[in-house]
Amino acid sequence: MHTTKIITVLSAVLALTPTVGRADVVLEWNALMVALVQGQPPPNMNRFAAITQLAVFEAVNAVTGEHTPYLGTVPPAPGASAEAAVVSAAHTVLRHYFPDRAASLDAASAKSLAQIPEGPAKHRGITLGETAAAQMIASRTNDGSEPPEFYLPLTSNPGDWQLTPDCPRLGGVFLHWRNVRPFAIRRADQFRSDPPPALKGARYTRDYKEVQAVGSRDTAERPHDRANVARLYAAVGDAVLWNPIARQLAEARRDSLSRNARTFALLNMALSDAGVAVMDTKYHYNFWRPETAIVAGGRDDNEKTEPAASYVPFIVAPCFPSYPSGHASTSYAAREVLERVLGKRGHVITVSSPAEPRIVLDYTRLNDITSDIDDARVYGGIHFRFDQEGGAEQGRQVGSYVYQHRLRPVQGFGGNDGEPTR
């Protein structure tokens, strides 16, 4: 995204953000962060989002003390302006990782800070935010996210992943992401998925036939509404999808600044760690995509899988192994966190993307979103149904672990932090 477009987006977000209720400053800067990272590949955007929201959380928590800290190295700062700390923390992180956007970020920060009364509390909050941001940035130095590594297939055996048409010549991307240090889970393989089904088995056969029938570019068996979800969720995913969903829910609940800071820190840790876990699993099993499997269906020793030499998926497959689905893993992790914090149903949620302006999806339950995402990848022709099921289970495990082990409420500050009963 060009700098001029970033400035326009940031200005529009600030102009549309409510200014009554300073708790909205967390939501305001979350929206700014999403606008900034949306051009990044999903693993990168999730990492930047997690660092930003954890810096915001650490800064707010140093003021309120309502939750166990993440780093535990930011000194308590009762009496500092939590609102100023939020702005300063988010601004400092984003400016560090996106120095070419410094001018637009500085303007956004000045506008946000101008709404906070002058005084010692404001200045203490600014310093606090800078401290929290600096410590979060330092904690992620040499975390394995650089340099990039690529994978070139060594064999063409049935079941082995092969390069797909959109791959760079270097090979499969994000091989190194399995080595990224997670934010919350203990290690990348902690929730590694069980193996994919055997090529001769009934489950593989069933799911092969499904994606062959509904996922090809020229099929007549894909309903219009499934084509829409395939297009939309190919255009929007991970942090750019789930942060706006969480903002809609948080705005409806009118949660406090402290609770919002925690919600978005948990959400983005789960998204990032699910991305690490799924890349570990993908390159561990190295399983082929439907577009490879269906063309080579005559070589898999399964007499029930008829090949189709002309098969082309409806949407473009990412350049890495198929099993399990990355979109499923990250989305079910996000859903697990948000259901625990904000509830399962009774919501008013709209999902849309400028990339597909004619498609707008409305939901009242979070599980309907993940169900559509599962369909999107199968009807899009790039995943088997078992890819989605494997990613879903992995994502639920990651999300549950993040929620249960990180940023827990401190006794005396509302018990379950106002979260709904499951």
Quick summary:
By secondary structure, this protein is mainly α. It has helices at 3-16, 24-37, 42-64, 82-97, 102-114, 120-139, 202-214, 224-235, 239-253, 257-285, 290-295, 326-342, 366-379, 385-405; strands at residues 345-352, 360-365.
What's the layout of helices and strands?
Blueprint: H1 3-16, H2 24-37, H3 42-64, H4 82-97, H5 102-114, H6 120-139, H7 202-214, H8 224-235, H9 239-253, H10 257-285, H11 290-295, H12 326-342, E1 345-352, E2 360-365, H13 366-379, H14 385-405
Antiparallel strand pairs: 1-2
Helix pairs in contact: 1-2, 1-5, 2-3, 2-4, 2-9, 2-10, 3-4, 3-6, 3-10, 4-5, 4-6, 8-13, 9-10, 9-12, 10-12, 10-14, 12-13, 12-14
Care to describe what's here?
By secondary structure, the chain is mainly α. The chain has 2 domains: 3-139, Vanadium-containing Chloroperoxidase, domain 1; 175-179 and 182-405, Vanadium-containing Chloroperoxidase, domain 2 (Orthogonal Bundle). 54% of the residues lie in helices and 3% in strands. It has 14 helices and 2 strands. It has helices at residues 3-16, 24-37, 42-64, 82-97, 102-114, 120-139, 202-214, 224-235, 239-253, 257-285, 290-295, 326-342, 366-379, 385-405, and strands at 345-352, 360-365. A two-stranded antiparallel ribbon has the order 1-2. A hairpin with a 7-residue loop joins β1 (345-352) and β2. α1 runs antiparallel to α2, α2 (24-37) runs antiparallel to α9 and α8 (224-235) crosses α13. The two termini are 41 Å apart. Mean pLDDT is 93; it is low at 1-23.
